Amino acid sequence: MLDSVEIFDPTRGSVSFAGKLLLARSGLSATTLLDGKVLLAGGEGRSGDLAVAELYDPEKHTLSPAPGMLTPRHGHQAIRLPDNNSVLIVGGTSSGSALSAVELYVPWQGLFKRIGDLKSPRTGATGAPTGPGKAMMAGGTAGSSTLSSAEVVGYATITTDRNDYPPNTAVVVSGTGWQPGETVNLVFHETNGPDPDVTYQAVADSSGKIANSQFSTDIHDYGVIFTLTATGVSSGLTAQTSFSDGANLDGCSNGPATAPTACVWINGNLNSGKAHYNEGDSAPYRVVMDGLTLGTHTVQFGWDVTDGGKHAIDYLTSFNRTLAYPSQADPCLGVTGCSGPPTLFPIPLDPSLAANGINTSVQPVAPGSFAMFGGAITNASAYGLTGAYAGSSATQNITLTFTATSSTVVLAWGDHLATRLNWGNLNTLLSVNGSSYHTHFVALDGGGGSQDKQIAADAVVFPGSITIVKHANPQSSEQFSFSASPAAGPVTSPFSLVDDGVTAGANTKVFANIVNFQTYSITENLSTAQTNNGWTLDLLTCTDTDAGVSVGTVTGTSASIPLSEGENVRCDYYNSKHPVLIVNKVVVPSSDTGLFNLQIDGTTAGTGANVANGGTTGPQVVSAGSHTVGETAGTGTSLSNYLTTIDCGSGPVSGTSLSTGNLAVNTTTTCTITNTRKSTLTVTKTLLPNTDTGTFNLQIDGATAGTGAAVGNNGTTGAVVVERARTARC
Description:
The chain is mainly beta.
């Protein structure tokens, strides 16, 4: 049983800690509310079933207490009701028994309300809204019984005929599920406007339906967002909805990274579940302005260029810079009377960019144009900067003057998401959480309340990169082959690099814009021919070029790189062509059966064990410098039976070992060890008469040899190995 709360980020594939519950528990419900907060309700704790409820704020990443449920329970259903926006709490288990109690959490009242009972207590049921004012519960269990029944829970609804209204337009309200004959109060509240609340009333008919069209939007309500709360005077039933007036600021929801879509314009914040962008992309925005008179108007909007001194939306570009028009981003989508192509107006360069040190040598500023449908822009004001770039936040704004040729005008542009190429590795929002990319609608014709739409940090991905660099000594046309695993997205396998010192970029492979953050393995694969020719991998290093620290692990010829978001890793492979030394065996005569061990630096090398005539060590890679070549006797062989010379290219030298002298990189040296079988000489004694008893010492080169000491008739030295041109004496 845990008290921890964690957030899964599908873009990054990571889980992060989000706080702690008031009490450790299991079997609780989690329901997203209209304002984006999450209601965490009930559950089973160490002391039993709980009525505790809490609210998680995804913008602030905080947990705060909420009023408790009326009935402790776990394993219940919690459903946010459409056209009502309360949370229906149904069934579950309390003190070991299935529950029938039904209650509502009403966010705008901040409380739970009992609304009735199910006909059959049940836990573990399935539930979902099934139509206006109705939600169905099906199945589940009660004690040892499995239920096959289903039942419907009714609730009150409130809706408006539009989500957005031009100024001076009646708002048509309707609802269902109210107590027949009761009066329902309708409270209109401006969430971002100056006017006080307005209350009208509707009377429910015999079927519980209500209707009202007394409220109208004002001329100065451009951009105002309204909430409409309906409350039954007799029943106490309540429901809530929202709508806006005149001008709406919409952001482009292009789907999560795992399921991208064409642009869907939404009048709310964008998170990783709704949108995905990379740093340096341009996120499309639009302002829809309804009910305009034909002629001249002004529209003002702004954006946060920095957040906490980090660069956020650094400048404006065309709305279709990243997403193509109209296949991926169409500003007219869902707007009646809007059609393309738009008129264009060049976006002026913001002087604050250069003044605050933007680096355009690698990544130039992307020029762009404002696009307008149903009108034409005639002038753009100077930029109006509020705050300091290096401070907690700086906001830029601009006012456009335009001529409306239609009563509905749509303005579109793109927010450029600041990139490290422009501002430096530590100066963007790579490591910032929350909704940090803010765009503001300020005013239409000088009036209207501000709308603030945000892109959450988790919807903006900072791609990583892997750079592989080959260093070869000597530089040549030699190709070095690599494999990569997994080969996904921009990471390809196999690939080859050449370090010839001439061809630009031939020794470097860059895998840029990697958004699949996982562990990659990059392996150099030397061929047998390259190994025989002396090529070896002497050193492999990997460094995070952002922070300049080692990253990943290196094993043999392979680098394992656990790539994280925004991480740029460089791996350098250093190869040199070491000296190659070959030792060959020659035996004279070639039919001689002697066996020899061919050695380099006192150790039998390669295939040089017990070799006869024509044997070899094969190519052996050695370090630069001096080495010793020699041999030892093989099986059944004595070196004393042979004359031995070694020739490493400077002529034969007698002896069983020889120093090669300095061997340089990129050289191959062959040494030949020649063994010549020595001659044998036999001296035999003959006496006349053969019965003579005299004894004699048989000598070779002045020394008694073999068995020739004090021999008589037929005595002998036996076969004695001698070098050529020897003399025998007796």
